[in-house]
Automatic annotation (TrEMBL):
GO biological process: chemotaxis; signal transduction
Species the sequence originates in: Halanaerobium polyolivorans
Protein name (database record): Chemotaxis protein CheW
CheW-like domain residues: 10-152
GO CC terms, sorted: cytosol
């Protein structure tokens, strides 16, 4: 007789690549995934803001996760994807190299990152999971914590200034 464990819940994660490394983010933190578009550069914006896009009439700032997470970009990577997310009522895009799959993970499959491997301000790392290959680890990110409160406010001002300029034109 097989006993099913109803206490464990499977959560869905979007698996994406940055510089040939695999990362995951809970599907509940995302709105949609789009192919990278031509970005409009915004002068005096933070380094990690790659630009803005027009998403169905809304001005959306796009964050380059390579820059934000201090991961060297793969120069040969051509096609990129943008994961659209909601951060404290702010819509933003996260620029990644590629989106691979949606993967279900049980809580038991996720380990906490050892403290020695973490910076003090890296509370955006939710945990670590194994991939099917077993030798490769999947770093799970909490996108709500990828940006500090101050950085979110800066993004809001970039979004508001861009929207105001669009209205004037």
């Amino acid at each position: 007789m097989q006993i099913e464990n109803f206490g464990s819940q499977r959560e869905q994660y979007i698996v994406f690549q940055l510089a040939k490394k695999k990362f995951g983010v809970s599907i509940t933190q995302t709105r949609e995934i789009i192919s990278a578009k031509e970005l409009t550069y915004v002068p005096d914006s933070p380094d990690f803001v790659k630009g803005i896009i027009n998403l169905r009439g809304a001005v959306v700032p796009v964050i380059d996760l390579h820059l934000r997470l201090d991961i060297e970009a793969d120069k040969g990577q051509q096609s990129k994807k943008i994961i659209i997310i909601e951060l404290d009522s702010l819509t933003a895009g996260m620029l990644v190299d590629d989106v691979e799959e949606i993967k279900g993970l049980m809580k038991e499959e996720i380990s906490i990152l050892p403290k020695i491997a973490k910076k003090i301000d890296s509370n955006y790392i939710e945990g670590v999971a194994r991939t099917e290959a077993e030798e490769e680890l999947l770093l799970l990110l909490d996108l709500n914590n990828v940006l500090t409160k101050q950085q979110k406010e800066t993004l809001r001002s970039v979004e508001e200034e861009s929207t105001a300029q669009e209205v004037q034109n």
